[in-house]
Write a structure and sequence with these properties.
With 362 residues, this protein is an alpha/beta fold. Helices cover 26% and strands 24% of the residues. The protein folds into 2 domains: 204 residues, Alpha-Beta Complex (Quinone Oxidoreductase, Chain A, domain 1); 135 residues, Rossmann fold, CATH 3.40.50. Helix 5 packs across helix 6. It is an enzyme of class 1 (oxidoreductase).
Length: 362
């Protein structure tokens, strides 16, 4: 038994305010729960939106974070797929497995208590321990050859990029694909779009360091967002436009630019998290047969992506992780990640000293 019943966690205190503080250890609340000791965790752009106040349903006092790798230390009586001691990936999406949407593999829309809950509606992963609901579908045992730093990229960014960007955009052989935004999600879109043998992938961003990273993971051409990417796309497609354009920024200007670069009959896949309204220019689009998709990741592809990571078919963390911190440096990591234009941060990963014991039920 542990001598104390508190742990450290990053707590949202209201727009613009967080703190790394003592909070109660999580325990089993439902028979389908697992408690995981966190070994590696990362920060998502969505976390920055929460801190800014763009996600008002996140209540002050919530532990942030929805991506982690760790070790199971306790499970509820109904959990069958993992047990204490197992090394697991904690998915950003929980799935009850019973509701209509879960039966359709739309776990992000779960109506049975799952969906995006961690760091949103319940305490999340940016802590020393996390309680994961519906553990049988919401944590994934890790192959021995996959490192924690690689695996944590599969908690959110790779499934999001693959499902909401590549699959929704129906990327196919020979396609011209434009990815607007070369942050972690955009880079993962580039890497997973390559699996479908497109004719070319063009990455757009303001930062040269991110464009270089895009080239390293497979982009065929890059262009600064300040240098008229629309003209480049027109030049490369004989004025027709791109087959698929993926919005991976989350600002109105980027979305509207995407709709100007897509060809008639093409697809715009919006992945970015938007905190402000964007204008849908139907006066230009109504006659172009354009398909626009949106989506919250479902993580139905996580087992596939885990196998591909283990087989070396996806970029390692070294292609995206630019900064590493101890778990207790959470506030410093947020500062570095939030000032990416200055710090050059792409993805940050945190890990640190672990508790040796955990309070168990009963």
């Amino acid at each position: 038994m542990r001598k104390d019943v508190v742990m450290k966690a990053l707590v949202f205190e209201g727009p613009g305010r967080t703190s790394w503080q003592d909070v109660p250890d999580p325990g089993i609340k439902d028979a389908a729960d697992a408690v995981v000791r966190v070994d590696a965790v990362t920060i998502c752009g969505t976390d920055l939106h929460i801190v800014k106040g763009d996600v008002p349903e996140v209540a002050p006092g919530t532990v942030l974070g929805h991506e982690a790798v760790g070790e199971v230390v306790e499970v509820g009586g109904d959990v069958r797929t993992v047990r204490p001691g197992d090394r697991v990936l904690v998915s950003c999406i929980a799935a009850c497995g019973r509701c209509r949407f879960c039966r359709e593999n739309r776990y992000g829309q779960c109506r049975g208590g799952g969906g995006w809950t961690l760091g949103h509606l319940i305490d999340g992963t940016q802590a020393e321990y996390v309680r994961v609901p519906f553990a049988d579908l919401s944590v994934h045992p890790l192959p021995a050859g996959v490192t924690s730093e690689d695996a944590v990229l599969l908690a959110d960014i790779f499934p999001t990029a693959y499902e909401v960007g590549v699959l929704n955009g129906r990327v196919g052989p020979g396609d011209t694909v434009v990815v607007v935004g070369a942050g972690p999600i955009g880079l993962a879109v580039v890497a997973t779009a390559k699996l479908y043998s497109p004719g070319r992938i063009i990455a757009v961003d303001l930062a040269e360091s991110r464009l270089e990273a895009a080239r390293n993971v497979g982009a065929d051409a890059t262009v600064s967002a300040a240098e008229d990417p629309e003209a480049l796309v027109a030049d490369l497609t004989d004025g027709i436009g791109a087959d698929v354009v993926v919005e991976a920024v989350g600002v109105p200007e980027a979305f509207e630019q995407c709709t100007r670069m897509v060809r008639p009959g093409g697809r715009v896949a919006n992945v970015g998290v938007h905190g402000r309204p964007a204008t849908l220019h139907l006066e230009d689009l109504w006659s172009k047969d354009v398909t626009i998709t949106t989506g919250l990741v479902d993580t139905h592809s996580t087992p596939l992506l885990l196998r591909m990571m283990a087989a070396g078919r996806l970029p390692a963390a070294s292609a995206m992780v630019t900064h590493r911190f101890e778990l207790g440096q959470m506030e410093e990591a947020y500062d570095v990640f939030s000032r990416a234009a200055v710090t050059g941060a792409l993805k940050v990963v945190l890990g640190g000293p672990r508790h040796d014991e955990i309070t168990t039920a009963g």
